[in-house]
Amino acid sequence: MNPIQEAIAQAENEIRDVEDGGKQLCLPGMSRSDFGLMTEEDLGKLLGVTTLTLAKWRNQEGKGPAFIRPSKTVFYRHVDVVAWLERIAEWPKSGNARPENPEKHDASFAAAA
Predict the structure, then answer these.
(1) Which of 51, 102, 105, 108 is 20–30 Å from 15 (CA)?
(2) Is residue 16 located within the same domain as residue 46?
């Protein structure tokens, strides 16, 4: 095996041999957050819900954010959590429909404050 093949084999072994419960999800020197991944404990703290609530949501279609389960451990991608929060966002009952571009709405609201 040449040095390049050895380095590739070592990286592949290290990828399999990761951080979370003895399993690594990423390359050496990188963490879950580099990939925008959160554990259910991370997300539970962020949302103020228990991991049991998140587990219940995972078993109800359409409830809770999308998740990935590469092994026994469940992860949530930041982009999926943001998309889910955007879907469930409630807007003031002023008779106005939800803005087509919520980011622009939020920016103009912040500027007015």
Answers:
(1) 51
(2) no
Q: How many other CB atoms sit within 10 Å of the CB of residue 64? A: 22
Q: Indicate yes or no: pTM above 0.70.
A: no
Q: Which residues contact 71 (CB under 8 A, 6 or more apart)?
A: 21, 23
Over residues 3-9, the mean pLDDT reads 60
For the segment 25-42, what is each residue's pLDDT rounded down to a tens digit?
Answer: 555 666 666 678 899 999
**Closest by CA position to 1, among listed 14, 10, 27, 16:** 10
**Shared-domain flag, residues 4 and 41:** no
Q: Let me know the angle formed at the C-alpha of 111 by 43 and 109, rounded to the nearest 5 degrees.
A: 60
Under DSSP, the state recorded for 34 is G
